Structure formats: C-alpha cells, structure tokens
Amino acid sequence: MRIVIVGDGKVGKSLTEQLSSEGHDIVVIDSNPNVISNVVNTHDVMGICGNGASYEVQREAEVNKADMLIAATSADELNILCCLVAKKIGAKHTIARVRNPEYSRQLAFMREELGLSMTINPELAAANEISRMLRFPSALKVDFFARGRVDLVELKVHAGGSLENQTLSSLSKKYQSKALICAVQRGEEVHIPSGDFILRAGDKIYVTGSQVEIEKFFRAIGVLKQKVRKVMIVGGGRIAHYLARQLSETGMKVKIIEIDRNRCIELSDALPKAEIINGDGSDKDVLLEEGIAETDAFIALTGIDEENIIVSVYATLLGINKVIAKINRGSFSDILTTIGLDSLISPKQITTNQIIRYVRAMQNSTGDGVVALSRIVDGKAEAVEFTASPATKFTGIQLKDITLRPNILIACIFRRNRIIIPGGADSIENGDSVIIVTTDRTLRDLNDILA
Amino acid sequence: MNYRMIVHILGKIVLVEGFLLLLPFAVSLIYADGCSIVFGALAASLVLVSALVTARAPKNRVIYASESFVIVGLAWVLTSVLGALPFTLSGSIPSFIDAFFETVSGFTTTGASILTNVEILPMSILFWRSFTHWIGGMGVLVFVMAIIPLAGGHSMHLMRAEVPGPTVGKLVSRFQSNAKILYGIYIGISVLQIILLLAGGMPLFDSLVNTFATAGTGGFSIKNTSIAAYNSAYIDGVIGIFMLIFGINFNLFYLLLTRKFLQVLKNEELRCYLAIVALSVGAITLDILSLYENVGEALRYAFFQVSSIITTTGFATDDFNLWPNFSKTVLVILMFFGACAGSTGGGLKISRLVIMAKTVLREIKKTARPRSIISIKMEGKPVEDSVVNSTNTYFVVYMVIILFSVLLISIDEFDLVTNFTAVVTCFNNVGPGLSVVGPTGNFSEFSMLSKLILSFDMLLGRLEIFPILMLFSPSLWRKK
After folding, report:
1. Residues 6+ apart with CB under 8 A from A416
2. What is the DSSP pairing of strand A141-145 with strand A150-156?
3. Gyration radius of chain B's alpha carbons
4. Which DSSP string do the residues of B195-240 spell out, in sequence order?
5. Over residues B352-377, mean pLDDT
6. Is B63 helix (H, G, I), strand (E, B) or coil?
7. Nearest chain B Cα distance for residue A68, angstroms
8. Burial of B172 from C-beta contacts in 10 A (0-12 / 13-18 / 19+)
C-alpha cells in the first residue's frame, strides 16, 4: 500500500520503521530538514520537507494516489487539517492522532462528517491498556485479538510453580479449565503447543478464553493474586486522568501523587472520587507516608523515564503485587525486565501498534479468505480470522478427528455472537468465524490448516 | 565495519558482471572472432566465484554510511579489474595496466584510450569496451539494485555515493522501483537513439556501440577518427543532440513521464545548462568561422564539440586541437563545468556551479551589508547550509587533487598543456584533451605510473572523490 506519514516524531518514526519493513511504499513529510534527511538515510522511504497540511506539499507527496495518510504531528489541529486536505485530494483512508480530550469527545462527528477513518489518542490508549492489565494482575501483559473480542493474557511459568513440567493435556484434565494456551514463547522461539507440549520454567504462555474462563484458570493454577482494590499513581498527567476515571468507575480506590499544585486542583475538580496528593512522587518519604506499602498496584506515570524506573524498582522491592512503569524511550526496555520490571507501557508503542493493526486489518480484509489478521506475541505469531463456508472441507466433523498441520491451533470459534473455546468434541459449522493461531505466515484459506 | 556484508554485496556485483559478460560472449559467437572462449570462461568463473562467496547470507545485514562508501569504492575498483581481464586474456591489450586504464576509462565513461588503432580489435572486444560505458553511465550499483534488493533501508548511502550531484532525490519511495525507473528511462532513450542512427544508414553494430558510448556519455569509438569517420551531418546531429539529452538530470525525464511539464521548464539547472551550451556554441562558431566553408558547417562542428565536451562524452567530429586558442580554452573550461547532476555525465555539475556562483554573490552582498541574511535558493527552494558547505569543500578537494595529479604525471616530461588537459579530461570523465592527448592522439605514451594515477583520477571523478578517498582512510579499516 502507499502510505503517507505526516510528522516524523517518536510515533512517526516507529510507524515508518514497521510499515516500511512490511513492504509498504512510504512517504514521510516533516517540516524539519534534518529529520527528513535522517529518515531517508536509514529507511527505504521517500522524504518530503514541508508543512504536511499544505495542499502543495500533499500534491508533491502524491497523497491523491495514497491508500492512507497518517497524521502524527504534535498538534491536534494540524493533524485534523492534514486529514481533511488529504481526504479532499483523494486519499482513501486517513488516521489522525488527536490527544486533546475536548476533540476526542467528538470522535463520531469526525469519523462521519469529516471522513477520518480513525483517530487515536495515545494517552487514552495507554490508560485502556493499564486498566486491562489491572484486571489480570498476575499477567505480564494483556493483549487482545479478533478486533478486541478475545483477550490474550501473557503469563510467566515460574520455577516450582504449578505449571512447571506439566503437559498441556494434563493441565486441562487437572483443572477442568476451558481457557486455552495458544502460544508459548521459549527464549526467542515461539511454539504453537499441542497437547503433549511440556511447559518449562521461564516460558511465557499466552492464554485465551472468555474473561470468566481465564479468571477460573488463574484461580485453579493458584496464580490469581488478590483483586486490585487500591491503586497508587505517581504523576498526574493525561494518562493518570483517564486511568483514574476508568478505575474509579470499576470501584477501585485511586490515589494520585502529583508535584504541581495547580494540576492537583484541576485533577481534584475532574475526579471527585480519586484522592489527589500534592507532593513529590519520587520522594521515598512521601510514598511511605501515603501508604505505598498497602497498595495493591503501583503505577509510575511521570514524564521522566528514569524517575518511573527508580520508583517502580522500589515498589517491586516492597512486594507490591502489580507494578507498572511508563517508558517513553523503548530501546532499553529489554534490560528493564532483568531488574524485575515486567509490566512496561509505552504510549508511543501502543499508538504505533494500534495504527499498524488498523493498516494490517485493512490490507488483509481485501481478497483471499482472510477476514482479519493480527500479530500477537511481539509479532512472532499471527491470529488469522476465517469464515467457514460450504467450501470448507471439515465442517461438522469433531475437531479431535481432524489432523492439523504443525504449529497451527484453532483458538476460537464465534457462532452467532457466542465465543466458543474449542475442545475436541466441538466442530466447525458453516458460517462460523474461526480464529487460527499460527507461526506459519502463509495461511490463505481455512482448508490450508489441514495436514 | 560489517565486513561480511561488504563481501556479500561485492559477491552479488561479481555475479551481475558475470552475466553481463554473456553479451560480448554472444557477439563473439555471432562474428566468430575467436574471443568466445575468453568471454565464456570468464563469465562462468565469475558466476561460480560469486555463488561460492554469497552462498551463506550474513546474519547481520545492517550497513551504515561508512560501509556503503567502502562498498561503492571497492565495487568500482573490482568491476574495473575484472572487466580488464578480457582485454588481456584475448591478447588485444597485452599489458594489464593498459587494460585496467582502458576499462576504468570505460566504466567511468571517460573514453580516454591507450589504443592507437582500434579498428583491428575483435568485434566482441569492441562491444565490451563500449558496453562498459553503458553500464558505468547509470552506475554499476544502481544496476545491481534494480535487479537484486541489496541492503534494505540503508541503500540510500549506496545511491548517494554513486549518483553524481550535490544532492540526490528519490523519485518514488522504494529503492528498487527507483532504480528500475531510472534504468527504464535510460533503456528507452538508448533504444530511440539506436533507431535514429539506423535510420541514418549506420550499420547495426556501429549503432549499438555508438549509442552505448553516447548514453553513458563515454566516448569510446570503434573508428580511429571517432564520429568523423561517418562524415554525415545527420549522424553528427543525432549523436550531438542525444549527448545533450543524456547530460540532463534523469529525474526530469520522470517528471516528463508523469506530465509535470511546468516543473521541467522551470528547472534552474536545465535552463542554465542549455544557456551555457548556447553561449559556447555561439562563441566557438564565430571563432572557427574562417576554418570552414560556411556558417552552417562551423555551427555543425561547434555544436557537436560543445555538446560532446560539456556532457563529458568526448566524441570528436574534427581535430579541435587545430582550432584557435580561444575555442580550445572554451572547451577546456566546459570540461570543468560538466553536465547536470543526476545525469550520466561527469565534471563539477551545473548545479554545483550555480550554488557556488550564488554563494559568491551572497558573500559580496554580505560584505557591503554585514547584517543582511541571504538564503541561497535553488529550484525555488532554500539550499541548506550543509549542502553549500559540502559543495565548496568538494570544489577545494577537486582542485587540490587535480593539481597534485598534474604534478605527479609531469614526471613523464610532456608539455604542460598535455599534462594539465590529460588530468582534467580524465578527472572530469571527458576523454580527449589537447596536444599529445588531443582527439587524434591517445594516452599510450604515458608511463605505467601515470596511467595508474590517471585511472584513479577517473574513478575519483566518477564517484565524486569521497568513496575512493575513504578507501585510503586507515581509521575506517582499523578494528575497534
């Protein structure tokens, strides 16, 4: 696809990198010549220096022939204007980053009247991700696939835990659980496990199923930690604002520590249910006084990465169940896992991922039998959605009688809006949506999964 | 330094050269000139060597600017060394240094020759000699990039190192498509020229090789008297006009294809280029009027020679060594000017001249009004200071290397005009100079050392100095 990216900041850069490596034709527009020469030197893309909202520049970038324009400059207004101009010139799809809550409340209007295909608010997206993580506090990460209908929970197998050295079939017998382990990451490699797969300590497993089933599974294997009731947030920025509102709605007690007094007053006006503390969240005494030891979850959301890392390490040492740190610069996130910080979020990465998900879904929903496709496990595996049709060779046959190719797993069946996590006795019927998890990138038809 | 990746890419280049050698192989089969064994064996062994070297792809495929420059520099030296083998092995040019000079002259599209009588050479050798022009004109690596994807995102450095001019722009976002478009345009115009030459009654083989030499702005001829041998005003006209065309920035042809005519018309470099050509033709026509029968004849020879020299082709339709001094001086100055950036021509490039001229004007204005801020504009857009600086630096390094080379080859005790024009003509990839190395002379008299120096001057000129200079920088090779 031909994609034009306006604004080569953090999000623009990681979008350029990902989309260009996936084989799309990318044109990057930025007003800073240094940024442009840099991106042209490091990626196989075309760079244009200028104001992305200007008609002239967009003509030069051939936006009229583009399949998509993504506006990711730092200014909301500029992004919206870029998309409006692009839409009028003839770009097929437009995506704008809009972070001001005042605009984000008029999303429906922007989509229907102004023709924006998608707007994305990095802070809101980050807040959503954190709330999802707090729902399953023992999970490292909570992802979703199939357009958000199915959760995918990442979990670590601990040495001496109830999962170690078990085969998957013995696990499901022992716990009578309907949750499904659909991928296992061991070191760098990703396996799609079959029933006789043995889990080892250090593996990361990806469990899918309805929320109730996953909770049941967690309780059964004994890793369901106490439900999160008290949350402490350090740093009262936009993410904290969205997050506190979401968490308060689910009945959690939220305490925000913010250093700026005026911001505290604003937050206090906007969030009557939350407790707002004016103080330095990186000060150990302040944290102790505000009861860091008694909270169930600790979230570091200041604007400074180093500060977030330090206070999170401290919180981990105090033995808090769930510690989440916001990291803006992602290039060092690998080393943070070695010092015990497993739950990291980066608004930039979340924004990029969501846009890329959209691009991929758009690309994959055309032609072929693939309805939708999302990459899971850091892009190392795919969840592919197919619709069973009369051409499907194995409708009505119990799954235990079908031999699948290696590294393929039927993760989920949707039948009339009902989610079925399939067992051996289930079968695929005409009209079902079927989600296949696989490391094989060549699946093009539902019949391809047969051995 | 990612040495494995450098070797890998060089291996790919050897592969491509191996396949290119199949063309003269076919020619030698057709004319049965006895060189088919040389070309066949060489092509086969190059393909074999490349297969061995590139069998295992390196794990780390990332290359940065320094690797790219080294790759470009080494690639040109390597292709020239390998390309010289057919000349020596077939016995056409017994000395390897001579063959190397001839091949470098071919790939860098210089057209300077050490051969005293080209007409006795086998057809396939003549074909290969001219074909090196065609490949070298657009660039060996650009050609390889058009067929094989090389190094992902960082290929921009490769292209920048090989495509001449102060700045390099892309036409489309993907490298491979970019390289394909450039070669598409290149092939298209070449085919057109072949047809026009055939229409003028030139034999097929001659049309092919002369087109190769024109397209690459090279200048190797298969006749001892160059294009004068055909003695046809029509052929002079066709070749003269096509030389000018190949001296234009290829991006402009793409703009023509995408119907952006206005942008082409407004192009500052193109206007300047055509103005310089018109002025020089006018001046030389007036100067040489007395030597020819009428204005038309004088104009014909003046136009062809100006077009041949400014595009750095180096064809001749008359011995301009016998022209008045004023005309000779104009031609030598044109050698420095060169063609447009992004064309197949050499020299300093018109866009560099324009930038330098504007910098000088700015400095003059600034002296008068120290507080004024004047931005330099090119094609209606401001030129970044880094580009202005690198242009000025380029000019300084360019002059220093030319003077140093003149000093070194003066050991051979030729007159100053010969030495100076020999270096200038080689460095700017033109071909003929004045006096001993004039259009009817050649470079065979020079010593081996001078031939090597001139060969490197040609490479320096074609790759715009830095990729070759970097090969001699010890800090680049030292292991950390």
Report:
1. none
2. antiparallel
3. 22
4. HHHHHTT--HHHHHHHHHHHHTT----SSTTGGGGG--HHHHHHHH
5. 90
6. coil
7. 14
8. middle
Token pair belonging to B72: 């470009």
The ipTM, to two decimals, is: 0.74
* Cα distance between residue B182 and residue B160, in whole Å: 14
pLDDT tens for A372-410 read: 667 777 667 878 888 887 878 888 888 888 888 888 888
Listed range (A209-213, A248-252, B55-59, B385-389) with the worst mean pLDDT: A209-213
CB B374 within 8 A of CB B367: no
pTM assigned to the model: 0.79
The first and second tokens of residue A450, run together, are: 């047969």
Tell me if residue B433 falls in helix, strand or coil: coil
Mean pLDDT of chain B: 89
Phi and psi angles of residue A118, each rounded to the nearest 5 degrees, phi first: -160, 140
B173/A46 Cβ within 8 A: yes
Domains in chain A: ranges and CATH: 2-120 (3.40.50.720), 139-220 (3.30.70.1450), 230-350 (3.40.50.720), 363-449 (3.30.70.1450)
pLDDT tens-place string over residues B77-119: 999 999 999 999 998 999 999 999 999 999 999 989 998 888 8
Q: Where are the beta strands (DSSP E) in A217-342?
A: 230-234, 253-258, 275-278, 297-300, 322-326
Q: Is the pLDDT of residue B350 over 80?
A: yes
Helix ranges (H only) for B54-95 are 65-89
Label residue B258 by pLDDT band (50, 70, 90).
confident
Do the beta carbons of residue B342 and residue B168 sit within 8 Å? Answer: yes
Tell me how far apart the alpha carbons of residues B72 and B139 are, in angstroms, rounded to a whole number: 10
Q: A20 to chain B nearest CA, in Å?
A: 9
Evaluate if residue A335 carries a pLDDT over 90.
no
Q: Which amino acid is residue B463, in one-letter code?
A: L
Cα–Cα distance measured from residue B96 to residue B81, given in angstroms and rounded to the nearest whole number: 9
Statement: residue A366 has pLDDT above 80 = no
Which residues in B lie closer than 8 A to residue A41 (C-beta atoms)? 65, 154, 156-157
How many beta-carbon contacts under 8 Å exist across A and B? 33
The one-letter amino acid at A139: A
Among chain B residues, the shortest Cα distance to A34 is held by B384
Distance separating alpha carbons of residues B382 and B380, to the nearest angstrom = 7
Give residue A162's region: left, alpha or beta (phi > 0; psi -120 to 50): alpha
Q: What is the 3-state secondary structure (H, E, C) of B27-41?
A: HHHHHCCCCHHHHHH
In chain B, whose CA is at the least distance from the CA of A27? B173
Confidence (pLDDT) at A73: 92
Please tell me which residue, A143 or B446, carries the higher pLDDT value: B446
Report residue B102 as tokens.
């001839």
Instruction: Please enumerate in sequence order all residues whose Cβ is within 8 A of that of B403, keeping only pairs 6 or more positions apart, or say none.
Output: none
Q: Where do we find the tokens 């005026």?
A: A262
From the CB of residue A402, how many other CB atoms can be counted at a distance below 10 Å?
16
- pLDDT mean over A25-44: 87
Q: How many other C-beta atoms are found inside a 10 Å radius of the C-beta of residue B52?
A: 9
pLDDT of A367 reads: 46
